[in-house]
Design brief:
Elements (H helix, E strand, L loop, with lengths): L1 H28 L4 H28 L3 H12 L3 H10 L4 H5 L1
Helix pairs in contact: 1-2, 1-4, 2-3, 3-4
InterPro entries: DUF3817_TM
Pfam family, one: DUF3817
Protein name: Integral membrane protein
Length: about 100
């Protein structure tokens, strides 16, 4: 399940950046709202998936509230899920995740 969470975290981060870096400028500066709708849907689904997987993994791995909050807040920040992936989720960082 950790691999699925890692993939979801990366996709959620990419969709977040696409939403704010591409589709919102198109919507408000170029008056092209269609990409914002579809990227927004994708981001919403990925964000919910990230949250559900985070809750499941928190219970499965017995991470604790501190690690849960760190991972959740990262999903609200630009580039946050990329930081979490590099620091905690990559196979080379698995020891830090388990501690």
């Amino acid at each position: 399940m950790l691999k699925i969470f890692r993939g979801t975290a990366i996709l959620e981060g990419v969709s977040y950046l696409l939403l704010f870096g591409l589709s919102m400028p198109l919507k408000y500066w170029a008056n092209i709202p269609q990409p914002n709708k579809w990227i927004g849907y994708a981001h919403g689904i990925l964000f919910i998936g990230y949250g559900v997987l985070l809750v499941l993994l928190t219970f499965e791995k017995k991470w604790g509230i501190k690690k849960f909050l760190k991972f959740f807040v990262a999903s609200l920040l630009p580039f946050g899920t990329f930081y979490i992936d590099k620091k905690y989720l990559k196979p080379s960082a698995q020891k830090a995740l388990d501690s």
